[in-house]
Amino acid sequence: MELNKVQSEGGLNVTLTIRLLMHGKEVGSIIGKKGETVKKMREESGARINISEGNCPERIVTITGPTDAIFKAFAMIAYKFEEDIINSMSNSPATSKPPVTLRLVVPASQCGSLIGKGGSKIKEMRESTGAQVQVAGDMLPNSTERAVTISGTPEAIIQCVKQICVVMLESPPKGATIPYRPKPASTPVIFSGGQVRADPLAASAANLSLLLQHQPLPAYTIQGQYAIPHPDQLTKLHQLAMQQTPFTPLGQTTPAFPGLDASPPASTHELTIPNDAA
Question: In the chain, which end has fewer C-beta atoms inside a 10 angstrom radius, N or C?
């Protein structure tokens, strides 16, 4: 969350930037058919609402504007999510309505102020708004930001966001912030040393199954002539070994790696597996 204070005739006019982390389905709901929903939100709230590009399971929604505009945008998003929950419940046997959940992305340097001494601030926010607030213990991958999850009724969420904004304004970020950028759906990462592996931080369980479906032998660390599988791939590797699948396709599909030559099936490849992985 960044802030920019501009002196105006009416006193101090504060412009905030708040970042939200959303799944693809949530983003689709915010955008709406032909972008109608997000257009309406922008017009009615007066806030700038930008959605990160990219084929990622997660997207960043950035909301910028004066504090009043931010709260209006948040209210519209919270009520839209509640509407989605109600619509989904009409097709399910569930009787109790689950809460609306939003995830903020906050610089780690500001999270201490949000939690407060001995958890006093976060406890106060929970009690005074009725919303559940949780600050992630770990930073988001390749960033200095943490996820702050808020759950509750739309009204509770709006009140909670207002209190969070006040804390953010009183305790600006310290030092440089490396913003979180969601990764595409588990693309293998190639290192200069001729190593290839699937990025474990980006590989959720769903993405991992996607990897197994579309790549013959994913997630290998190549060291000289030896291919050491990622521990998660050992089961798949065992299945392939039982089928006596030659390693030739890997050599053919990755000509960039001199360590794996596309030799005939008759040749043997030694496979070493670390003891802890086995």
Answer: C
Closest CA to 248 of 232, 265, 234, 231: 265
Tens of pLDDT, residue by residue over 205-246, are 444 444 444 444 444 444 444 455 555 555 555 555 555 444
Q: Which residues pair with 6 in a beta bridge?
A: 13
Q: What gap in Å lies between CA 8 and CA 95, rounded to an integer?
A: 50
DSSP code at position 184: P
198, 204 in Cβ contact below 8 A?
Answer: no
Written as six digits, the tokens of 185 are 């759906």
Least Cα distance to 41 among 7, 11, 15, 64 occurs for 64
Please check whether residue 163 is in contact with residue 129, taking contact to mean a CB–CB distance below 8 angstroms: yes
Taking every pair of Cα atoms in the chain, the longest distance, rounded to a whole number of angstroms, is 83
CA distance 87 to 69: 27
Q: Helices then strands (H, E): number in the chain?
A: 9, 11
Q: Three-state secondary structure along 150-193? A: EEECHHHHHHHHHHHHHHHHHCCCCCCCCCCCCCCCCCEEECCC
Beta bridge partners of 190: 196
**Which positions ≥6 away from 169 have C-beta within 8 Å?**
3, 14, 16
CA 238-211-32 angle, 5° bins: 155
* Residue 120 neighbours by CB distance under 10 Å: 10
Task: Please state, in angstroms and rounded to a whole number, the distance separating the CA atoms of residues 278 and 273.
Answer: 6
**pLDDT reported for residue 205:** 46
